[in-house]
Write a structure and sequence with these properties.
single chain; 1002 residues; alpha/beta; six-stranded antiparallel β-sheet; 24 helices; hydrolase; calcium; Cellulose_Degrad_GH3; glycosidase; Galactose-bd-like_sf
Length: 1002
């Protein structure tokens, strides 16, 4: 802790001013005791210990130096800070002033130097500070950093205060009110105990959505710690399900900060009562007290047993027996535990009965409140209390991108989800949750999982069997962590590469997207759903219905997005041929859920104008459910109904009546349930519509076997990130590589060659995996386990023959060939839209690296990106060009084709444009003059005649490319691309005819 000299005359004046402010503030609040024991009690407290005086003793700096620094979602979200002299400063001469205008998130931190010992705050009651209020009502979050290596690798504990006052006020934050942060932890958690003996500083999170200013002064530690801060009583579970007649053993434990023995006795009084079970009939009441004497070791436990009884009823719903705990001398559990006597004898529990009959029985027994709960999905980090799962009868939870447990391990996920499922057992019918995640290219939220190439790379492989295998690997890893539901695959047909979700698409051609829908079988197994209860299968989601890949540039009204969530304006014929076609295929394959798009659909000629897909009854009820015969359930996108025009009641009513069955209301689950109940009560939503929605949801839960096995089956957990799964990802990475130029047969490389490697994406696993990896947007750097392209190249060739210079600043002489790996940094959704801080150009550093290396030697350029990169002006200096897409964690797959362990066989899943001005450009356009056409891809494979129509088309395609010799003209590119589309539809005769025309034009 930094102590400062306050003995100057100005310091004495500031203390007098501070004392006066304290007295005035306390008297105004009626809090200052004029006589009695208050002064004596305060005298027993240790002197306040300064943390920040803001006199300049702590500079603006970053780790590893001690300092104050800002942070935010983007550069605009960083507050502007300054130390400013003020006559009204509560302490000293200066205060910290700041200005902010935050749209995402932002704030500031004070971190202690990482090369010095951490500070010990454990002797104090809490931390306090002076804040200059403007009575805005805004909530400020204050966070402290406990344990770990340093301030950016510590556990985060948070509390908050509200700006509901005017002028200076001293805000006291006792350590007992700080809670462990569940939505984010920088290192995945340490011990989940607020130790206070290894502290690294604090952070303030500022409010979003309103431009404002603040002033702050004198952060200090105050008061004397008591044992209730350092000792805690906990139970080994919150819910104890038992079969009727069984007994529950509730284990009570006492733990302390630092695992030291308790100094004073801790007592726990307990008593049953107050639940839905009848005392004396359903269970034997218990009361009593357990004592942990002074000197008891941390972790000591005692057990309270609650015995249940069998009664004469043959069938009953679940009954609850709360065990009230009153703790003295330690912090009590966050909530009292409850014993639950399991439901039994009811028809819906009969595993031999048909699912349809089980569903009908259960729905007939449920209250409207219970049905509405089943239609509600909340973000797990937004739960106000875990007990809300039962009290709100929640049907589902999700982890949004980056919403992960601590620690973020497979074991951590299984433990977290089992805890949530346990809560659902405290409901009348013990209906299990269905937990969902966005595992869009492997179990991508989990550190150490196998990360596949994004869908654009899978589309480039042209291998439906491979697509199925990648789905199967993902399903196995997801289910092994207790998650039975995956919000994948994305079946969008990407028609404009300016879209930030382009890489989530298999390609621009609906025929290609349909061919890759074998991935659904990989996720779910057989189309009838009979495999869904397996420990390696998950419920799949076809998204986003419908037309999300066709939104017009500039049509988005979401924040700074330019194209994502915009308007798709098409004829009815184009809608059915391009955007609807993949969903018909998904329904045929038995996909269990469908998710509507954020975007709007404007069908030319229907005179309705744009309609938000979450409100489009004609498409969801009419097209999807009635015409296509979809029997699963429809889940909204993340807060998707909020974008429907009108008030919230209208949003709820419109979306449910349009055919949505479950609503993803990440934060607003209580408001949603209340609103939907009111809409049903008023008759604006019929109970028949509710029953249909709930029946669809419960059908999938029964198919998944969740009623019989709600908890994680971790039998396959040792396969997560294992060799067999990584082998599939490696194969996918190799087959996704598209060779676009190969002058002088510069590829494949030879292990004997001396190779100069450069570029921003050669040795960056985060860039290589892209968005939706560990966090929503993804990030650069070593974010998960895997092999970078550089590391793979060094394994594929003698280590001494591969040298790396990221910026190509190292000398370039003495090398046989250069490999420059360039491209994009991670993004997701509309954040990645071109025009929203992104473009399709290489960075200045990457362009320089290409110029330097390709100007000095034969060179190969690999673009690691989610979409084509505009490289035409440098193409003449490049000998080899490879579209590497976002290959995932297995860089070895890229090295396999570079060093001829496997041949290049990939084909472009999208058209590669010459310029941004050409966009959108797609196969079938009347005017079509690309840099490289859809379907293009050179090969290093020895080609034979093969057999069958498909082999005949492949051979003809390669001959057309060979004749063109890399010189792409509009005359041959158009029929060439159209031939690829026809071949994917099975029209091989038409494809050969188009290839003949292309050959003639080449």
């Amino acid at each position: 802790m930094r102590h400062t000299d306050s003995t100057t005359r100005s310091g004495r004046r500031s203390r007098r001013r501070r004392a006066a402010l304290l007295a005035v503030s306390a008297l105004a609040a009626g809090l200052l005791p004029l006589t009695g024991t208050g002064a004596a009690s305060a005298a027993d407290d240790p002197a306040p210990t300064p943390v920040d005086r803001f006199e300049g003793e702590v500079p603006f700096a970053t780790q590893p130096a001690e300092g104050i620094f800002t942070w935010g979602g983007d550069t605009d979200d960083h507050p502007k800070l300054e130390l400013k002299e003020r006559a009204d400063a509560p302490e000293g001469a200066k205060v910290l002033e700041g200005a902010y205008d935050i749209s995402g998130y932002g704030g500031f931190s004070h971190d202690y130097a990482a090369d010095k010992p951490a500070h010990d705050w454990s002797a104090h009651k809490g931390v306090r500070l002076w804040w200059y209020g403007d009575d805005s009502g805004r909530k400020l979050t204050f966070e402290i950093k406990d344990g770990g290596a340093h301030g950016e690798a510590s556990e985060l504990w948070t509390t908050s205060f509200t700006d509901d006052f005017t002028g200076w006020k001293q805000v006291e934050l006792p350590f007992t009110q700080f809670e462990y942060r569940t939505d984010y932890q920088p290192v995945g958690g340490i011990d989940h105990v607020l130790g206070l003996d290894r502290m690294w500083g604090y952070a303030v999170t500022l409010p979003t959505g309103a431009k404002s200013q603040f002033a702050m002064d004198d952060v200090e530690l105050y008061g004397k710690a008591d044992q209730s801060l350092r000792a805690q009583v906990s139970t080994d579970a919150a819910v104890y399900p038992v079969k009727e007649g069984g007994a529950a053993a509730v284990k009570l434990s006492v733990t302390t900060t630092g695992n030291v023995p308790i100094e004073d006795p801790v007592t726990v009084e307990y008593a049953t009562g107050g639940g839905t079970a009848d005392a004396g009939k359903d269970y034997t009441p218990v009361t009593g007290k357990v004592t942990f004497p002074a000197g008891t070791a941390s972790g000591a436990a005692k057990t309270v047993t609650v015995a249940t009884a069998k009664d004469s009823a043959r069938s009953e719903t679940a009954e609850t027996i709360p065990l009230k705990l009153t703790v003295t001398g330690a912090k009590p559990p966050a909530e009292s535990p409850q014993v639950v006597i399991d439901a039994h004898g009811l028809p819906y529990l009969d595993t031999k009965a048909p699912i349809k009959k089980r569903v009908a029985d259960l729905v007939s027994r449920m209250s409207l409140e219970e049905k509405v709960g089943q239609m509600t999905q909340a973000e797990r980090a937004a739960l106000k209390s875990p007990g809300d799962i039962a009290s709100h009868n929640l049907g589902s939870l999700l982890s949004g991108g980056g919403s992960v447990p601590t620690p973020n391990t497979p074991e951590g996920w299984a433990k977290m989800i089992d805890g949530y499922q346990l809560r659902a057992q405290a409901t009348r019918f013990q209906i299990p949750l269905i937990y969902g995640v966005d595992a869009v290219h492997g179990h991508n939220n989990v550190v150490g999982a196998t990360i596949m190439p994004h869908n654009i790379g899978i589309g480039a492989s042209r291998d439906p069997q491979l697509a199925e295998k990648t789905g199967a690997v993902t399903a196995s890893e997801v289910r092994a962590t207790g998650v039975p539901w995956d919000f994948a695959p994305c079946l969008c047909v990407s028609r404009d590469e300016r879209w930030g979700r382009s890489y989530e698409s298999f390609g621009e051609d609906p025929a290609l997207v349909k061919s890759m829908e074998t991935m659904i079988k990989g996720f779910q197994g057989r189309a009838n759903g009979s495999d869904l209860d397996r420990d390696d299968k998950v419920l799949a989601t076809a998204k986003h219905f419908v037309g999300d890949g066709g939104t017009a540039y500039g049509s988005s009204t979401t924040g700074s997005y330019t194209i994502d969530q915009g308007i798709t304006k098409v004829t009815r014929q184009e809608l059915e041929a391009v955007h609807l076609a993949p969903f018909g295929e998904a329904v045929r394959r038995g996909v269990g859920t469908v998710m509507p798009s954020y975007s709007s659909l404007d069908i030319i000629g229907d005179d309705q104008g744009p309609v938000k897909m979450h409100a489009d009854a004609a498409m969801i009820n009419g097209e999807l459910k009635k015409k296509l015969g979809f029997e699963g359930f429809v889940i909204s996108d993340y807060a998707g109904i909020d974008q429907i025009p009108g008030d919230y009641a209208s949003d709820v009513r419109t979306s449910i009546n349009a055919g949505l069955d479950m609503i993803m209301v990440p934060n607003a689950y209580a408001d949603f349930e209340k609103t939907l109940l009111a809409e049903v009560s008023s008759g604006r939503v019929t109970e028949a519509r509710v029953n249909d929605a709930v029946s669809r949801i419960l059908t999938q839960k029964f198919k998944l076997g969740l009623f019989e096995k709600p908890y994680a089956d971790t039998a396959n957990s040792d396969k997560i990130g294992g060799a067999a799964h990584r082998a599939v990802a490696r194969e996918a990475a190799a087959k996704s590589q598209v060779l676009l130029k190969n002058d002088g047969n510069v590829l494949p490389l030879k292990p004997s060659q001396k190779v100069y490697v450069a570029g921003s994406n050669a040795d960056d696993i985060g860039n290589q995996t892209g968005g939706w990896t560990v966090s929503w947007q993804g990030s650069s750097g070593k974010i998960t386990d895997g092999t970078t392209i550089l590391q793979a190249m060094k394994k594929a060739a003698p280590a001494a023959s591969v040298d790396y210079s990221k910026d190509a600043s190292a000398p370039t002489s003495g090398y046989d060939v250069g490999v420059v790996v360039v491209g994009e940094t991670p993004y997701a959704e509309g954040v990645g839209d071109v025009g929203n801080g992104h473009d399709l150009e290489l960075s200045a550093a990457d362009r320089t690296a290409v110029d330097k290396v390709c100007g000095a030697m034969k060179c190969v350029v690999l673009t690691v990106s989610g979409r084509p990169q505009l490289i035409g002006d440098q193409l003449g200096d490049i000998d080899g060009l490879v579209a590497s897409w976002l290959p995932g964690t297995e860089g070895d797959g890229v090295a396999d084709v570079l060093y001829s362990k496997k041949p290049f066989t990939g084909q472009l899943p999208v058209t590669w444009p010459k310029s941004e001005a050409q966009l959108p450009i797609n196969v079938g356009d009347a005017s079509y003059d690309p840099q490289f056409p859809y379907g293009y891809g050179l090969t290093t494979k020895a080609t034979g005649s093969g057999s069958g129509d498909q082999a005949l088309v492949t051979g003809a395609r390669l001959k057309v490319q060979q004749k063109a010799g890399g010189k792409v003209t509009a005359a041959w590119a158009k029929p060439f691309a159209e031939a690829e589309h026809l071949a994917l539809t099975g029209d091989y005769k038409g494809a050969l005819k188009k290839l003949a025309a292309a050959y003639k034009a080449a």
